[in-house]
Amino acid sequence: MQLDKILSISGRPGLFEMEAQTRSGIVARSLVDGKRVTTSVNNQISVLSEIQIYCIGTEVPLSEVFEKILKKEEGKSASVSPKAASSDLEAYFFDIMDNYDEERVYASDIKKVIQWYNILLQNKLISVTKTKATKKVEKPTPKTPSKKSEE
């Protein structure tokens, strides 16, 4: 899951894919409607690969949260609406991340995560991979000691 070029821009709904970086900001394309936008360095821009969710004793990268939602939903959209009641959002998130810090992760954060998951899924930026990676283990060949010839 490559989230290195996927952005959240404050004041703008949805997610964006970075297309170019300029001296004064960035040029990005909306993943919702496909429109290009230009933002300045004054806007708060968050790269999804750098966002983490607070858990008890640790922090979990957002990509791992998306993978857990993807696994739970079997590659489909989230079963809970982002507009659901905060108690429903928290219950859903607790099913996915049973150790998330309820005092530092708010219902509005969960709402964003679910919205972002659905946007990434619709744009086919995340998907279920059913192929298992198998690693072939090769046995080392025994080496025979080499004799140095004396001159």
What general outline do the C-alpha atoms trace?
A: globular
The helix count comes to 3
- Cα-based radius of gyration, to the nearest Å: 22 Å
CATH-derived architecture of the largest domain: Orthogonal Bundle
* Spatial separation of the terminal alpha carbons: 60 Å
Number of strand elements: 7
Mean pLDDT across all amino acids:
86
Question: Could you spell the SSE succession in H and E letters?
Answer: EEEEEEEHHH
Strand content: 15-25%
**Main pleated-sheet profile:** 5 strands, antiparallel
State the helicity in percent bands: 25-40%
**Low-pLDDT ranges:** 131-142
Class from secondary-structure proportions? alpha+beta
CATH topology of the largest domain: Arc Repressor Mutant, subunit A
